[in-house]
Design a protein that fits this description.
The chain has twelve helices and eleven strands. The chain is α/β, with parallel strands linked by helices. It folds into two domains: about 120 residues, Rossmann fold (3-Layer(aba) Sandwich), CATH 3.40.50; about 170 residues, Rossmann fold (3-Layer(aba) Sandwich).
């Protein structure tokens, strides 16, 4: 009897998804509880399932001579050395739709917290102060500008429509808008949007896309929301824009270094920091596990993938996402 391919699970995924994989034509090694021993399982691995914790570097790939498939249970692939994998003929797949609803809902929640200035009101009330003056603004009539207009940003735009919110987007990889949100240039978006919401994929070309020059072009009193990747924003420049009063506030679910180390940014009362939890709902994680296991099972059957690394430059998931 032929030896079954070994699929190593490096990071925790949904238990039901693991059970579905174990029922497939493979042998599953769940190494997620002991990340320090992952190297012990790599020599025999045909497939490797990861989330954010495990960085699939060229060095790691070199330790897995039998590796044929890397499956990331999430959206971004910046934690995977895709170029090295391709050079080795290793297929790379992910779960691009799994977190869409979770991240979209978090984004809308952050917009509301910022525009209504809710966190300062909560803090004041807890401290025993009863501050009932005029505070904040409605989302109705607010212009939200999306930097990157892929699946998640479009889901946010749909959720904002009942609020009466105006949406615009910048995405040079889209030839035309797929919905009612108009596409504009980046400078125009920065000048018009009261909330600039970042939904770009991190590349070497767009690192610090939002820098001091970009903040200087933003509408005075605007807000920045980043639920994509931390290095898209120059955090020192953001801090200076907040201190100068150019920006009224920011909400950051991602940071240049994670966990974040820039204490002055975390402690600024105008900043809402969250621990990269956009996709961390029970539903989002269940879908991520289900979707990525489905891709592994397709590969085991010799079927083409639905999602793969080469698909990230088309109109659905362009290079900004």
């Amino acid at each position: 009897m032929a030896e079954l391919p070994v699929v190593v699970i490096a990071d925790p995924i949904d238990r039901a998804a693991i059970a579905a994989l174990e029922a497939g034509p493979c042998r599953v090694v769940d190494a997620s509880a002991e990340p320090g021993r992952l190297d012990d399982h790599l020599p025999g691995a045909w497939g490797l399932v990861v989330r954010s914790r495990t960085k699939v570097t060229a060095e790691l790939i070199a330790k897995a001579p039998r590796l044929a498939l890397i499956a990331r249970a999430g959206v971004g692939l910046d934690s995977v050395d895709v170029a090295t994998a391709r050079a080795r003929g290793i297929q790379v797949v992910n779960a691009p739709a799994a977190a869409t609803a979770s991240v979209a809902e978090l984004s809308v929640a952050l917009y509301l917290l910022l525009r209504r200035e809710l966190l300062p009101a909560v803090a004041a009330t807890r401290a025993g102060r009863w501050e009932r003056g005029v505070r904040g603004h409605e989302l109705a009539g607010t212009t939200v500008g999306f930097v990157g207009y892929g699946r998640i940003a479009r889901a946010i735009a749909a959720r904002l429509a009942p609020f009466g919110t105006r949406t615009i987007a910048y995405d040079p990889f889209l030839p035309a808008s797929p919905d009612a949100t108009p596409l504009v240039g980046l400078d125009a978006l920065l000048a018009e949007a009261e909330i600039v919401s970042v939904h770009a994929e991190l590349t070497e070309q767009n690192r610090h896309l939002l820098d001091a020059a970009a903040f200087a072009k933003m509408r005075p009193g605007a807000y920045l929301v980043n639920v994509a990747r931390g290095p898209l924003v120059d955090e020192q420049a953001l801090l200076e824009a907040l201190r100068s009063g150019r920006l009224a506030g920011a909400a950051l679910d991602v940071f240049e270094t994670e966990p974040p180390t820039r204490r002055e940014l975390l402690e600024d009362p105008r900043v809402i920091p969250t621990p990269h939890l956009g996709a961390s709902t029970a539903e989002g994680q269940r879908r991520a596990g289900e979707d990525v296991v489905a891709e592994v099972l397709r590969a085991l059957r010799g079927e083409p993938p639905i999602s793969h690394a080469g698909a990230h430059h088309g109109p659905t998931e362009g290079g900004l996402r």
